[in-house]
Amino acid sequence: MANGNKSNQLTAEPRTETRRSELRKLRLNGRIPAVVYGSDMEGTPVSVDAKEFKKLIRTGRTEMLDLVLEGGRRVPVLIKDYQERDGKWLHADFLKVSKNKPIRVRVAIDYQGTAAGTKTGGMLQVQATELEIEALPDDLPSVIEADISGMEVGDKLTAGDIRLPDKVELISSAEELLASIVIPRAVEAENETAEKAEEDATAGDAAADDES
């Protein structure tokens, strides 16, 4: 779903630390080194509170928020990227956006339902977890929902099959494979062995008939 006009807020503090030891100390104090940048804004080093950032990241990268800089200046941004290791936040990138200018982002796919084919021996195979889309910041969905409940063994789901929200354009190729229902290799191999045995038996019966 799109986030509408609702905007979260995150306070950023100026950052001058660049050495690894200084950045490590910053993280130990509950801060995340970050950079905010845009087409009309040079990369500005800042730091944000790790706990507050964690609350925001749960809503998805495409949620627009106001980054409050030094002096109370508010900058509308998206969480462009972040690095996390062993549950610890290492770095974050914020992209300044214009509410009146469409932007391209990759949004997570939320596969919903249980594929019918998995109940008859099939296995869900996911090839993609994100789609690239374009929309105005206020129209960007936090996730893209994909209903897979009707998929049977042999069915494939492509990017073009996804129904996007209004005002959202698909940038990924419509032919990009997202998910499919396949027969597990072990079962497939077992079926092939059974088929070959049946063919051999049929061939043996035919040879016996010829001899008689």
Automatic annotation (TrEMBL):
Gene Ontology cellular-component annotations: ribosome
rRNA-binding as UniProt keyword: yes
Domain Large ribosomal subunit protein bL25 L25: 10-94
InterPro entries linked: Rbsml_bL25/Gln-tRNA_synth_N, Ribosomal_bL25/Gln-tRNA_synth, Ribosomal_bL25_b-dom, Ribosomal_bL25_C, Ribosomal_bL25_long, Ribosomal_L25_dom, Ribosomal_uL5_bac-type
Superkingdom in the source lineage: Bacteria
Extent of Polar residues compositional bias: 1-11
Span list, region Disordered: 1-21, 190-212
Domain called Large ribosomal subunit protein bL25 beta: residue spans: 103-185
Claim: Kinase is one of the keywords in the record: no
Keywords linked to the UniProt accession: Ribonucleoprotein, Ribosomal protein, RNA-binding, rRNA-binding
Pfam families reported for this sequence: Ribosomal_L25p, Ribosomal_TL5_C
SUPFAM superfamilies: Ribosomal protein L25-like (SSF50715)
Subunit: Part of the 50S ribosomal subunit; part of the 5S rRNA/L5/L18/L25 subcomplex. Contacts the 5S rRNA. Binds to the 5S rRNA independently of L5 and L18.
Function: This is one of the proteins that binds to the 5S RNA in the ribosome where it forms part of the central protuberance.
Family (UniProt): Belongs to the bacterial ribosomal protein bL25 family. CTC subfamily.
Name of the protein this chain belongs to: Large ribosomal subunit protein bL25
Organism: Paenibacillus enshidis
Gene this protein is translated from: rplY
